[in-house]
Amino acid sequence: MKKEIIQAAIEQARKTMNENIGGPFGAAVIDADGTILSITSNSVLGDHDPTAHAEVNAIREACKVKGTHDLTGCVIYATGYPCPMCLSAIIWANIKTVYYGCRPSDAEEIGFRDDFIYRFIEDKRQDKDILAIEEQGREECLVLFKEYDELAKEIY
After folding, report:
1. Of all residues in the chain, what percent carry a pLDDT higher than 90?
2. Which residues are catalytic?
3. What SS3 class is residue 37?
4. 3-class secondary structure for 82-129?
5. Is-above-0.85 flag for pTM?
6. Is 121 exposed, middle or buried (0-12, 13-18, 19+ CB in 10 A)?
7. Is 76 in contact with 95 (CB distance < 8 Å)?
8. For residue 61, how many other CB atoms are within 10 A of its CB?
9. Nearest to 42 by CA among 61, 32, 55, 29
10. Model pLDDT for residues 84-136, shown as the tens digit of each residue
11. How far apart are the C-alpha atoms of 118 and 87, rounded to whole Å?
């Protein structure tokens, strides 16, 4: 079944890639019982949305299908090793297993730039040429955080 699922992700990515909707990235989320919840592709160009990566799109669709933000027990298949944003989305969704096709070096070889984000994270977010991060308004924001905590809402 794994081979058929990754093949379906490849075909979805090929379709939208050839329509200039996104790159060579496809993803599928499979429920614990083997049900296919979503098969999507990268749609960054078509949606004009830098977050519309295949894995994020697959997670969004799977969550809608299941009616939850928690994909515990699901697995995700991707045509490429997930970028840092997609890895974060996968972790936030409580997906514990990722099957991927191409390595980060394969994506870098054809011009994708995940590597500089990995380096930024590894360098403890200190490269201001990539991104400047500065604390601002902490005291005011802490009030908001305290209000949320006092409401005893679900932590996700």
Report:
1. 78
2. 55
3. strand
4. CCHHHHHHHHHCCCCEEEEEECHHHHHHCCCCHHHHHHHHHCCCCCCC
5. yes
6. exposed
7. yes
8. 17
9. 55
10. 999 999 999 999 999 999 999 999 999 898 888 888 888 776 767 777 778 89
11. 11
